[in-house]
Write a structure and sequence with these properties.
Blueprint (H helix, E strand, L loop, with lengths): L5 H22 L5 H9 L3 E3 L4 E6 L4 E3 H14 L3 E4 L4 E7 L4 H10 L16 E2 L14 H11 L14 E4 L13 E7 L8 E7 L11 E8 L3 H15 L10 H8 L1 H14 L9 H9 L14 H9 L1 H10 E3 L5 E6 L10 E3 H14 L3 E4 L5 E7 L3 H10 L14 E2 L14 H10 L3 H7 L4 E4 L13 E8 L2 E8 L11 E2 L4 E2 L3 H15 L7 H8 L2 H8 L14
Parallel strand pairs: 6-7, 7-8, 16-17, 17-18
Antiparallel strand pairs: 1-2, 2-5, 3-14, 4-5, 4-13, 8-9, 9-10, 11-12, 12-15, 14-15, 18-19, 19-20, 19-21
Helix pairs in contact: 1-2, 1-4, 3-4, 3-12, 6-8, 7-8, 10-11, 14-16, 16-17, 16-18
The structure holds protoporphyrin IX containing FE and iron/sulfur cluster.
Length: 566
């Protein structure tokens, strides 16, 4: 993995010292909360419903064991012994005390981590495919370019005060595991065709996002030679910085600009800006790219057999293991190795929450069996990207001991949920208890397996941090005359077939949500053409009507309807 150079170390350490001084002045009353707010937000320190919350960036979702252990230590020493992994490869600590924040930042700096640019109208943590570098369907390892973007976007003087926050995601694989269609800029590595044959470049998407105005990103550039990534990003950012709306916070994201101008006009403006840029002044020299790429050189792995007798024996005798193996353990690009997904979605637990003990257990597994590598996923879980097949049984047994062996990757209980009203000052409704109630309703693994792939996402308000718009089933907390209600959407997808879900009908109170989800699943199971037709495919074929009828009853014939106003 990438290691900080002297500049990074000096910068992060001096920022810790600066923030220590700012906190001291706030605690002494020399700074008012209004004066202090922008300073703390520049260091990822939010003020939530009950306490401060510290958002820590995990660049493109890559962690070493040492870093994960340090996160565990920080959570145990200064917070309440757990952290919350987010969809954007951050971890949030929900009970931070202001006076402890400088020590927490210093502890992060020791392991080359920080909270800079995890808040504010700047370029946030760049996220990437959690299987980067090991996925069999990968064209090229996107972490190299994610690191290039990290360096370019960190304290970029021109882009620290954008009209609004800006999020970039990238993948180098055929399957999108980073939700690139729902980012301000989404990048996918592709092989060139025609005139570009033999080259690798990026497809560039722009203007995706959720919130109150959800959009799937539009194609900005079908093939950008990879060596021009930074100059092209610079051009796109300049157009946004200049024309993005600063007059209205709800219309300030790039998606609004792109959709107001249309993709063609936005592209024309970016191309005109790009033509003005002297590319060598911004694009990376080949030697610098090579220097960074060395940190991501593939592991030197001895090829191993792709079958293992002990794994086969255990699979035959232990249904829990067999299920976990089927759902959580994925093919690796090197024979004899596997990608292991670690679920933080045990039914009844808070989705994405990890205790310090669990973080330490995963760190130990990564050291012993996983070449010291850990990844954070869009789905709020962790991944050991490289485990020898022969070690998979030992990894499973250790995960069982730590409550981390639920075999539910991308199934109905692998719920994405935001903190909602339990923590968040912007929430309309709680998200966590609803997620827990649904997961417990579907606690029977056989039922979950029978339902098959199904993404269920919950957000506590229209800001859509739980990406409910892109859930196959989405749940949005709304305030209905002072009570928490939940609106259901169906048909969303965060993947290559990205789509925004459609609202089914009136919202439900919390206690009715699990029944409603069970009804929806029942309609799917009754209507699917075969066990292999997924929920999303069946919904697309069947349309919303049977689901609406099951939930709200068939529409009354015209004669029975009561005229409006009566
Ligand atoms: C509890 C503290 C949090 C606060 C105050 C907060 C606030 C917000 C706000 C205001 C937005 C909307 C921005 C806009 O539309 O311009 C947003 C977007 C977002 N947040 Fe959060 N958030 C919090 C936690 C989280 C967590 C825990 C996650 C992940 C589980 C998350 C993931 C996201 C994502 C992915 C978006 C972008 C949604 C989109 O595509 O438009 N946030 N957040
Ligand atoms: S979706 Fe709303 S409730 Fe949930 S974390 Fe985001 S801002 Fe808070």
């Amino acid at each position: 993995m990438y290691r900080y150079d002297e500049f990074d170390h000096a910068f992060v350490t001096s920022r810790v010292a600066q923030f220590r001084d700012q906190v001291a002045r706030r605690l002494a009353g020399d700074l008012t909360e209004d004066q202090f707010k922008p300073l703390r937000l520049q260091n990822g320190l939010y003020l939530q419903l009950h306490a401060y919350m510290l958002r820590i960036a995990i660049p493109y979702g890559v962690l070493s064991s040492r870093q994960l252990r340090q996160l565990a230590m920080i959570a145990r020493t200064w917070d309440r012994g757990f952290g919350h992994f987010t969809t954007r490869q951050n971890i949030q600590l929900n009970w931070t005390k202001l006076e402890d924040a400088p020590a927490m930042l210093a502890a992060l700096a020791e392991v080359e981590m920080h909270c800079i640019q995890t808040s504010g109208n700047c370029i946030r943590n760049t996220t990437a495919d959690p299987y980067a570098g090991v996925a069999p369907d990968e064209i090229e390892d996107p972490r190299v370019w994610a690191e290039v973007i990290r360096q370019w976007s960190s304290i970029h003087p021109e882009f620290l005060f954008l009209p609004r926050k800006f999020k970039i995601a990238l993948t180098g694989a055929a399957e999108d595991r980073a939700a690139i269609a729902f980012h301000d800029i989404g990048l996918r590595m592709v092989k060139g065709r025609g005139d570009n044959a033999g080259q690798i470049g990026f497809q560039v998407f722009v203007g995706g996002g959720q919130g109150r105005t959800p959009y799937v990103a539009l194609l900005l550039n079908d093939f950008l030679p990879r060596e021009h990534l930074l100059s092209f990003l610079e051009a796109a950012m300049r157009v946004y910085n200049l024309h993005g709306r600063r007059d209205n916070i709800y219309k300030a994201r790039i998606k609004i600009l792109v959709n107001a101008l249309g993709a063609d006009e936005f592209r024309r403006q970016v191309m005109a800006e790009w033509a003005k840029i002297e590319k060598p002044s911004i694009d990376l020299p080949a030697e610098e790219y090579q220097r960074i790429a060395k940190y991501f050189a593939p592991l030197q792995l001895a090829t191993l057999p792709n079958d293992d007798a002990a794994v086969a024996k255990r699979r035959a005798s232990d249904a829990g293991f067999a299920r976990w193996l089927r759902n959580n353990v994925m093919a690796h690009k090197v024979a004899g190795y596997r990608i292991v997904n670690i679920s933080f979605k045990e039914p009844g637990k808070v989705p994405g929450d990890a205790s310090s003990a669990q973080m330490e257990a995963v760190a130990a597994l990564a050291e012993q069996y996983g070449h010291d590598e850990i990844r954070v996923t869009y789905q709020q879980n962790l991944v050991l990207p490289t485990v020898a097949l022969k070690d998979v049984v030992a990894v499973y047994d250790a995960l069982v001991e730590n409550g981390l062996a639920t075999g539910n990757t991308e199934l109905i209980t692998d719920i994405i949920a935001c903190p909602g009203l339990d923590y968040c000052s912007l929430a309309n409704a709680r998200a966590i208890p609803v997620a827990q109630a649904i997961a417990l309703r579907f606690a029977n693994p056989a039922v979950v397996d029978d339902i098959g792939p199904l993404r269920l996402n919950i957000s506590g308000c229209i800001n859509a941090c739980g990406h409910h718009h892109s859930g196959n089933i989405g749940i949005l907390g709304v305030d209905k005359k002072g009570t928490e209600h939940y609106q259901i959407t169906l048909g969303g997808s965060p993947k290559d077939d990205a789509e925004i879900g459609g609202i089914l009908g009136p919202s439900f109170p919390a206690e009715e949500v699990p029944d409603a989800i069970e009804t929806i699943v029942g309609v799917y199971k009754a209507g699917r053409t075969s066990a292999s037709e997924t929920f999303l495919a069946a919904y697309r074929r069947m349309g919303a009507k049977p689901f609406k009828e099951a939930l709200y009853g068939a529409p009354k014939p015209a004669a029975q309807r009561i005229p409006e106003g009566v």
